[in-house]
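Q: What would this complex look like in 3D?
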Amino acid sequence: MKRLLLAATAATLVGLSAAAPASAAEIRYASAGDIYGLDPHSMTDSFSINFLQHIYEPLVRYSKDLKIEPALAERWEAVQPDVVRYHLRQGVKFHDGAAFTADDVVVSLKRATHEKSPIKGNLPALKDVVKIDDFTVDLHLTGPTPLLNNFLTNMSIFDAGWLEANNAVEPVNAQQGEEGFTTRNANGTGPFKLESRRPDAQTVLLANEDWWDTPQHNLTKIIHTPIGSDATRVAALLSGEIDIIVPSPLQDAGRIANSAGVKVLEAPGLRTIMMGFNIKDELNDGDVEGNPFQNPAVRKAVYQAINMDLIRDRIMRGKSRNAGALVAPEVPGFDAAVNERFAHDLEAAKAALAEAGYPNGFQFNMNCPNDAYVNDEEICQAMAAMLAQAGLKPKLVTEARTLHFQKALAGQADLFMLGWATLPMLDGYSVLSAMLHSPDDKLGTWNPGGYVNAKLDELTEQVDVELDEEKRRALMVEAFAIARDEVAWLPLHQQPLSWATRDNVHVEQTADDLLRLWYAKVD
Amino acid sequence: MATLAARLRSFTAGDLFYSFRRSRTTVLATTVLALMMLGALLAPLVAPHDPFDIASLSLLDSELPPAWMEGSNPAYWLGTDTQARDVFSSILYGLRISLFVGAASVLLAAVLGVFLGLVGGYFGGLLDAVIMRVADVLLSFPAILVALLINGVLRGILPAGQQESAALIVLVLSIGLTNWVQYARTVRGSTLVERQREYVQAARTIGVGSLRIMRAHILPNVLGPVLVIATINLGMAVLTEATLSFLGVGMPATMPSLGTLIRVGNEYLFSGIWWVVIFPSATLAILVLAVNLLGDWLRDALNPKLR
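A: Here is my prediction, written as structure tokens for the whole assembly.
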């Protein structure tokens, strides 16, 4: 019996090691979480939408250096300031063989902006879509929309006939647990087509032989597996079970770099991590009258009490990029002078607090996620310690992202963490409109602290309709300079992108931290 | 005083103490357990640093290796973690929280479960059906979900300012009220068997009351498995506490329990700072092992059939 067991174990081991190298053009990819479903109109999650762009395509897409390039639309022109005409690519076929026409664009864009659609906010300016002929459509807008193409990169095109035949023209909201035919079935025009999917376990895609574009990849098959635990994901890469992991934990970079056959890919990312203040009349969990955070000098004291160099060197292992502006250098609206951080100065912070009338500090609650950003919980703990050294009394709560963002959005946190990559717009307007404009029913959706500045509101509204690129940028820089001086938000850093692959895998690491396997090559 | 001395003498002369002394592993387990409890209880006196005093932490001291390795600082003999907390002090303070939550919730679950199981198994009928259906419902959900539910309800009841200070009690209640089902089921099963035995029948015939029968006759005979479950559950309770803390409904991140230390350290398994996960894990393993050994011995020593 013992010998039998031994033989069986040996056989399993041999089997495992034999399974290690993937066949040339197959790639096994592990991410931290699974996609929300197969319908790209059913979620605002940029990871899921990007994954689904292997199957579905938009009218225009981002290239590997994040520039807009034609996809299903070949070219476009403004007919009037608020009407843009798109000329569609001819000869494109959906995976089921149906031809791509203007009807598909009309139905898809209407579906995406349907009042029940969770992504309707990603194309707020669209009034109507009108078919001119089989390969021309006009987009009617509420006004001049400089970012129209940026918005459209997120709008996947479905086959109208397929949606109608399967009773799926109405959108579903996957983030609220809704399901429809499109949640489990997919039929796009993209470089890959769906082979099979088991939610939370495995999604398999096959290369689309009839893709209209010239493939820059050499893959035949993508096998995607979500692996939640950092250590397990790294172990799977090291053991040869997986070819690429996104993300790769920062703390394991050294270990991976020193292992044979695997490599780490690192680059500064787009996502700026920052802390938001509650600026309403009362603190949620304070021990003083009123709200000290209403005073910009107090906000600046909090800013100066935090030593970002130390956090970068220790917790981020030297790989983050400290930020003074609310957008990354790659994003329009960035300005080097605005990106200059206020120096870390504990004494100045203490003095400023004393001068503001809080020589003994004050208490407030501090909320952070523990599974949303790179080392988020560690950063917050370190910051809490630094604030305590300045005499403040932060009450830190770290929790799962769903709870954290719910609480932060409801205004129940006095100091809260938020990361903003400006996706899908890739433009400073994203920050201005969502986080700096005073909250109303359309703008200021991520300004739960209630920060109001009339000048910023005015600038934001000007940026929205300014078609001259130079002027737009100047307006945005002006706005971000005000936000910096007022410490409307407390910027921390851009978190690093960290991926790891086997040596024979070549991918393009784009600054938005999204893996585009249509550029991947496997030797 | 005299009676106390007499009691102590009769205990040391009794069967129980004899069997305890004879079993070396049990003595060892008890010593280890006692040391851990002492360390945890006296943490503020024993520990060289106070890891809960966040103002005293400086990131400059983070990730120092244990004292015997190169680049260490002798002030931190088991090294420091990513937040510059002294690992040894964190373990002592963490043990304090974990032991309290673990022991109190296991006790709560055991008392509740044994009582309900005994009553249900002994009286049967509608009462039994109700208790067991409630148990079935609880069992059909993952334990962590039930714990979250209880936690949510308790936090809803508490006023906003009290939540942090009541975090420990809320944890004990939510874990304890989730885990009683296993005890109830086990005890009910054994009670059903024992109830039919001759000695119970005999006691009943001579007119002994139900309560007394349950307490004096059935309880000692069904307690064996309870002790085994309790010892296993202690470890589970410590881990459940870590999970709840991870979800943000347990202890705050600035006051890590042993389970939280392990959960956080787990992310650094491949990164070379092994001491942040090995030492807390080893402590938990030794703790659970010691409790298990003690439980094993207690089961044998108390089992009337083996006496």
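A: To summarize the key features: The CA atoms of residues 24 and 30 of chain B lie 10 Å apart. Residues 87-123 of chain B form the longest helix (37 residues).
Q: Very helpful, thank you.
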